[in-house]
Design goal:
homotetramer; 2 domains
Chain lengths: 227, 227, 227, 227
DNA sequence: GATGAATGAGCCTTCATTCAT
DNA sequence: CATGAATGAAGGCTCATTCAT
């Protein structure tokens, strides 16, 4: 749960990792705690004290590193989310294979990094708080949403050029590729406790990939791809 | 009293008719105001006083009709969203035509009722606040989300039976039909101010319909339908 | 329960005494209700609405007869308590018999009129609120407490003159005759629910009369010692 | 900031040492202030802000130590009254002398500890607010009232066994020994300002002791008791 | 005369923020 | 660096009081 962006090898167990405080790891620990709490309470409903407790410090300490609750929130968004996008871009640039395969790879990668970590909370939070933090919303939209869309748009363009995909409005198609992912990731976080049937991730992703690639494929040979 | 017609744009004195109306229109006026405010501030950040002001009453008045801020929030959700779903169900039951046409009809109807009205705020709010109101989340998920999914699932099943659609997991496919709509509707509300390029609703809907129907269509004749 | 001072023959049953409203009985009904509510909630904790409900009217109606909550409270004290004292005085003046018999009569009468009706609430209230209502306290102390003490003092004086009682400071002795009654009446109201053993009124009164008369009686050999 | 050294006991400006102390003396200071304020305003009429001001802190500080106004009230009762009772019990257990002497000792002690300190306010409050705090009333009645009665009952029993006192219902007699004290202590606090003649404590106590011991004494030798 | 919808001041309570230690 | 006691500005909620009907 305590994942921070680029620290994916954190051994999540660590029974009691004492005696390694007093480093400069503090800000990260605080951000990590903030992620967890903001994420499932929302901005206003989050108490600095909860963050402090979870980070193993006191309220006052937070102010050594962040000017205000708002500043902490912004730092959180800025520092946790961008690396994800960058990572996606890196994958795309070095990927060798068909556009369809790349599409599938990115879809699954997105879910792994966003859907399965506490990072889910970020888009959820941004949707909710965009109105209250206009500059942050602008930053987020430009640096994350648009960049993510562009990434996916590149994949689609690649597919069109390669004759794999039909010619479509690539930016719109990119949004349509991402939105089922973003929505599911958020809704799952929000409503998991309310889903008696659970949420079958594999089915959801497979069906999305299947329908989407079917939908966008050039129609002559009709490249089906199921599992 | 009401010295002047219905909306005293009067300039004069109007000594101090401390309060005006006094109807059972009040609850609805308050809910309407609550919709606006909750919707763009979130639950916790909303001040009862703002709702009151917008409804043209004072804080105290709200408590004549609702027990608490939370109760007002619940009433808001209950009274605004459920009818929408019911309306969709009515359309589906009386619809005459192909499954594809029904799909398109529902997609456009959803956007018209949710995307173009302030009701957008409701799902946005629910996503954000579900964690803080487990009971409400359960209600919403059962009465709105699931019901909406079932509605769409029925359409897909109809298409499969008619040979229009490939056999797929209908519930998952239903979620995938809805999620681009739900996400877009929310994101548009959240980020519209941040979109320099705006949001081209027509393209988005058309492309979704096109890709989705293409994706789910039985592949032999492959009935494409673009615009 | 609903007793109002000088209306002791009120038939407490009256299944539904409708259609006799709109008289000038209103103020009394309100005072009666106020007595009940003030009495077991205290002044500040009493809501006008509770009084109104119990009186079968609405909040607004109270203001037709009383200027404010405070005014109602004062009227309540003034109008309900004085008749009691007067009644006691009347008994004393017309009483034929020994001082000891008169003492006993007054003690039992006090309990009957104060201990067994909602009038108990008045001294209880006054003790509690004297600090918040100085003028009222002054009125009450002069018109009720002092007058009550004087009444009892007269009895004691009578006993001394008749040789029944030892010579004592009559005013102090009067207070000591009354205080066990006043305290018991109040404490019983306050704590009845907390007394698993209940409160044995007969024992309490009998023992008080016994001890007090024994204590004040001229002992033939009589080693009195006063100051 | 602190332009000057560490503890400017200086007279000069003292720019704004926003707050001072910071000890665990705080809870006691608050309780002490609460005693004063609750005591002469009653529970409901007391404003936390008044308590805070009197304790030299702000409203918020109270909540560092007590969960709510009610919790503060309970703490107040628990910490002030119960020790008094215990002290009385200690006296009785170690007392050497006649039951009459012990009776007198306890009567005077009660007055000294309750009548002459601000603790008077507690029983006064309890009488008034018992109805609003059933649980607290139960606690108080069991831990204070009953315990006090039992203490006095023991004394009376001792006197009976020793042949000093007539056989009486000891529990009732105990109540009658205490009630003039409790009532006087409360009434004096409530009405002192209304007593033009003042309240002669010595007379009151002496006369009570005299009458009571006279009343309960075995009658043959007629134990007089002087000073 | 009565009503009851509406008001608005005020209180309890919370919590981001500060700062002496 | 850290702490945590203290602050003080709000916000939710209540309720005595008013007044159009």
């Amino acid at each position: 749960m305590r994942t921070v962006a680029t620290r994916p090898k954190a051994s999540a167990k660590e029974p009691k990792p004492r005696w390694r405080r007093r480093k400069d790891a503090r800000p990260e620990e605080i951000i990590s705690a903030a992620l967890d709490v903001f994420t499932d309470r929302g901005f206003a409903a989050t108490k600095l004290e909860d963050i402090a407790r979870r980070a193993g410090v006191t309220k006052g300490t937070i102010y050594l590193y962040f000017d205000s609750k708002e500043a902490l929130f912004k730092a959180l968004v800025r520092q946790t989310i961008v690396p994800i996008i960058a990572q996606g871009e890196a994958i795309a640039q070095t990927f060798i294979g068909s556009a369809r395969e790349l599409f599938e790879r990115l879809v699954r990668e997105y879910w792994r990094l966003m859907g399965e970590t506490s990072l889910v909370g970020i888009p959820k939070l941004m949707m909710a708080e965009a109105g209250n933090f206009p500059e942050l919303a602008r930053f987020y939209y430009a640096e994350v949403v648009t960049r993510g869309h562009r990434l996916m748009a590149g994949v689609i363009e690649r597919g069109i050029k390669a004759g794999e995909f039909r010619p479509v409005n690539v930016m719109v198609a990119a949004k349509l590729a991402m939105s089922p992912l973003m929505h599911a990731v958020i809704a799952r976080k929000a409503f998991l406790a309310c889903m008696p049937e659970g949420f079958d991730v594999a089915s959801y992703l497979n069906t999305h990939i299947d329908l989407y690639l079917h939908g966008i494929a050039t129609t002559d040979r009709s490249a089906s791809r199921a599992r």
